[in-house]
Every structure is written in C-alpha cells, then in structure tokens.
Amino acid sequence: MPPKRADGAHPNDPTAQTPGPEKRPWYKKKRFMVPIGLVLLGVLVQSLNGGSDQKASGDSSKASTASDASIDDSKANKTPTLGTPVRDGKFEFVASKMTCGIQQVGGDFLSEKAQGQFCALSVTAKNIGNEPQQFFTSNQDAFSGSIKYASSGTAALYYATEKGLDSTNWAKEINPGNQLSAVVMFDIPVDKKIDRVKLHDSAYSGGVDVTVS
Predict the structure, then answer these.
(1) Domain spans, the chain
(2) Statement: 86-211 belongs to CATH 2.60.40.1240
(3) Cβ atoms 127, 133 nearer than 8 A
(4) What is the pTM of this model?
C-alpha cells in the first residue's frame, strides 16, 4: 500500500493538489529588492555629497572671514599720509608738504643757521572743539625711525618772515571753527631723513602720526 503524503492525501488521489514551490517573503523578491537598493544607494550618495558641500561652504566662509579681517586690520594699521586730515584733541590737522635741505632761515638781521639741516613742514590746524585752543609749532615732533626730533619755534618765526608768511602763527590761539596755516621747522642731521611726524593739540596730548616720506 503506497504511503500517504505529508498532507494526508493518497498519492493516487487525482483530486489531491501537488504542493507548489515554497514562497519567499515579498521583501526578498528581486522585483522589490532592486528598487529598494537603488533608493538606499541614492540616499547614501546624496548624504556624502551634502557633507562635502557643507564642508566646502564652511571652508569658503572661514576663508572669506579671514580675508575680510586681514583687510580691516590692514586699514586700521595704515598710518595717514600727507594731505590726509587727522585729529588730536581739539585740532584737526592737515600736513601738506615737507621740504628738507634748508641750511639757514631768516633775513640779513634776524636769521638762524641749522646745526645740520632744516626741514619745513607745511600744516594747517583747525579747532574742532567748543573752546579756544592755543596752537604751538613747538608742540610738534618729527621722527627718523625711532629717533625723535623737537621742532624749533625761532626757526619757524624766521622762516615765515623770510617767506612773507604770517610770522605770528608759530604760537596763536584758535577759536572753535577757525583754522590757521603754519610752518613747523625741524633741525636734523644732514644724513638723516624724516619719515613721520606726530602732531599734537597740546604738549600733553597723545598726538597723531602722519607719514611724510
């Protein structure tokens, strides 16, 4: 007698159904696995590209910020030059010209000879404050590197007289809103060159630097 099948049906029973092949879960079928794999691959690629873009954007932003800061520092550290208005205290100065190599100033009766050479600085001073302020050419300083040179009031007086300028401007009070023009004289060695001046509204102010060469 033929053995019965596992489902209890007789092997010769024509009404018995032959068991079909074992069915796989839907997520293991090829028509589902391929699209899912492609989706996952796309997400991975997008994630990697996004990370690179963000890093590049961050690096670019940092570089731009560093460049802007460098430009700002450069502007902040740049010393004003001749013709540039600068301020110290109640005065706004404009140093316009520096002439060196002058051996003597004054006329036939009143004159002064340089120990080395005179340098004449043409400058205007405007009172931007609310009170009168005294201007003195003798409050101004010149520098050759780290060497400091004081100005000469008498040389400024003789030079102004010689050139037909207002000889009283070497020491004069300036009212608010008014300004004057003066020449500041420095007696320096013949082998030296003035590279900057420091202009003061008084003998006790911090002063402001102007590059003259």
Answers:
(1) 26-77, 86-211
(2) yes
(3) yes
(4) 0.64
